[in-house]
């Protein structure tokens, strides 16, 4: 399997190199040159398989030429052996049509663990025995940082620098990053910054030749293809348990950066019968505006109780636009240059029509978010976090036929957002015992101005050069 950039001018890479690279040299994102396609019989054969076995079957085409089936199975067994639930990602029924897919049973209580536990092992495997030192630079709106840090702490050959907007993540999210005291982990709190600012800094560092040539930069955000690949698995895992391939299944996905829902698009391209992918946003609704009206224009980030979705530039949306636009890298590069210059872009007719065939979208405000949390608790005794509540609110008003199961991705443990949950439901969710002492642990992080000069100077003082 070879991988190509959405902007058309970076070299094609194999799976190892695309994993270590993260962002393409032309500023684009990597995608497989073609989508593997599963037959109805192959999808049906996934029924009853463990999560590890499902993961091996779904991901094997993407690692062809780099990892053997036995290698991939070993890595998946290690990655998902750290999850607290035997099913890894269990399904929970709420009513006759609505289901939750609980993706938060990993070490840091968020869906990012599903991919990043595997990504950490891939980094270690690809770097073992080489003299290569990788500098991982990431931006987080809350959960990516803690999941990446847990996966990479103490691993040889990797320095990690994680940027987060100071004061714009929950206390639990912050402490899950800043209490990991490992020599290769560096947390940076950006002053007076949003997640979009942090993400822009990361992209600027990758695109700055003087800086990127000095360090072997890599990424753990969902711009990294390997991370996205791992998220495709749970769409197959859930769908076959609800009747696929004979019955189509819909998914409602709370999303800001478009990575989690793009994984559902990949599953559909691979042959999974997906009835609808519902893109659920909070009031930072650039994705809803893009999909419903073709208006991809950046607004001001509004802080909310769902901070992982407080985003106005969705990196992975570029992958969808590329695939729907005939995979014309030059045209997409021009389209993205225009957006980067003006902060606004209109989708082409091909992009809008292609998206409409599979995607729906909804904007969920604070009141409807709180009502969804209350409904889940009162109707089915399920306590859910604000992000999951946004997905559930969108799912319940999507108007899909009653015979189509709708799976809302439950992206975080409710205890990560205890204040918001308690306000909506009157229930204060407790942290699981395995991290029950989190609020008593020592923290360590640097507070820096959100400028390219300040951040790159900090990294240059601490990272290993090529």
TrEMBL record:
CDD domains: Thr-synth_2
Swiss-Prot/TrEMBL cofactor(s): pyridoxal 5'-phosphate
Pathway(s) it belongs to: Amino-acid biosynthesis; L-threonine biosynthesis; L-threonine from L-aspartate: step 5/5
Molecular function via GO: threonine synthase activity
Keyword Manganese carried by entry: no
One of the Pfam families matching this protein, by short name: Thr_synth_N
EC primary class: lyase
Residue ranges of domain Threonine synthase N-terminal in the record: 2-80
Span of domain Tryptophan synthase beta chain-like PALP: 99-346
Catalytic activity as recorded in UniProt: O-phospho-L-homoserine + H2O = L-threonine + phosphate
E.C. no: 4.2.3.1
Annotated keywords: Amino-acid biosynthesis, Lyase, Pyridoxal phosphate, Threonine biosynthesis
Domain of life of the source: Bacteria
Listed PANTHER family: THREONINE SYNTHASE FAMILY MEMBER (PTHR42690), THREONINE SYNTHASE-LIKE 2 (PTHR42690:SF1)
Matching NCBIfam families: thrC
Protein family membership: Belongs to the threonine synthase family.
Protein name: Threonine synthase
Organism: Sphingomonas echinoides
Recorded name of the encoding gene: thrC
């Amino acid at each position: 399997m070879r991988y190509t950039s959405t902007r058309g001018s970076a070299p094609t890479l194999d799976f190892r190199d695309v994993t270590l690279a993260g962002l393409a040299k032309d500023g684009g994102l990597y995608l497989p040159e073609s989508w593997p396609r599963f037959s109805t019989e192959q999808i049906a054969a996934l029924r009853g398989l463990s999560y590890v076995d499902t993961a091996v079957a779904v991901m094997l085409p993407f690692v062809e030429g780099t990892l053997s089936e036995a290698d991939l199975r070993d890595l998946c067994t290690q990655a998902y052996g750290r999850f607290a639930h035997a099913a890894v990602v269990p399904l929970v029924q709420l009513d006759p049509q609505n289901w939750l897919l609980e993706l938060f049973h990993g070490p840091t209580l968020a869906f990012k663990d599903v991919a990043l536990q595997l990504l950490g092992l891939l980094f270690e495997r690809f770097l073992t025995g080489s003299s290569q030192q990788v500098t991982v630079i990431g931006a987080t709106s809350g959960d990516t940082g803690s999941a990446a840090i847990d996966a990479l702490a103490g691993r040889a050959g990797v320095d990690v620098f994680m940027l987060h907007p100071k004061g714009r993540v929950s206390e639990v999210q912050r402490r899950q990053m800043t209490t990991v005291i490992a020599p290769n982990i560096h947390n940076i709190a950006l002053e007076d910054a949003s997640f979009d600012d942090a993400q822009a800094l990361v992209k600027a560092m990758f695109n700055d030749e003087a800086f990127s040539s000095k360090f072997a930069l890599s990424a753990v955000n969902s711009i990294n293809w390997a991370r996205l690949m791992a998220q495709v698995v749970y769409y197959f895992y859930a769908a076959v348990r609800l009747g696929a391939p004979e019955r189509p299944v819909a998914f409602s996905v709370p999303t800001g950066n478009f990575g989690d829902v793009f994984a559902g698009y990949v599953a559909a391209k691979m042959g999974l019968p997906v009835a609808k992918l519902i893109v659920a946003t909070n009031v930072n609704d650039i994705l809803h505006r893009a999909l419903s009206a073709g208006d991809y224009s950046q607004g001001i980030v509004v802080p909310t109780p769902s901070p992982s979705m407080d985003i106005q530039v969705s990196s992975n949306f570029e992958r969808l636009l590329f695939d729907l636009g005939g995979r014309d890298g030059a045209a997409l590069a021009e389209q993205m240059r225009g957006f980067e210059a003006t902060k606004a872009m209109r989708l082409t007719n091909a992009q809008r029509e292609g998206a409409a065939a599979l995607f729906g979208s909804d904007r969920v405000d604070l009141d409807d978010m709180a009502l969804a949390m209350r409904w889940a608790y009162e109707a089915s005794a399920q306590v859910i976090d604000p992000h999951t509540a946004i997905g559930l609110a969108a799912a319940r008003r999507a108007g899909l036929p009653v015979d189509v199961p709708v799976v809302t991705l439950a992206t975080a443990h409710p205890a990560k957002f205890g204040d918001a949950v308690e306000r909506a439901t009157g229930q204060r969710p407790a942290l699981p015992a395995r991290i029950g002492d989190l609020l008593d642990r020592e923290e360590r992080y640097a507070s820096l101005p959100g400028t390219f000069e300040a951040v790159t100077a900090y990294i240059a003082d601490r990272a290993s050069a090529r």
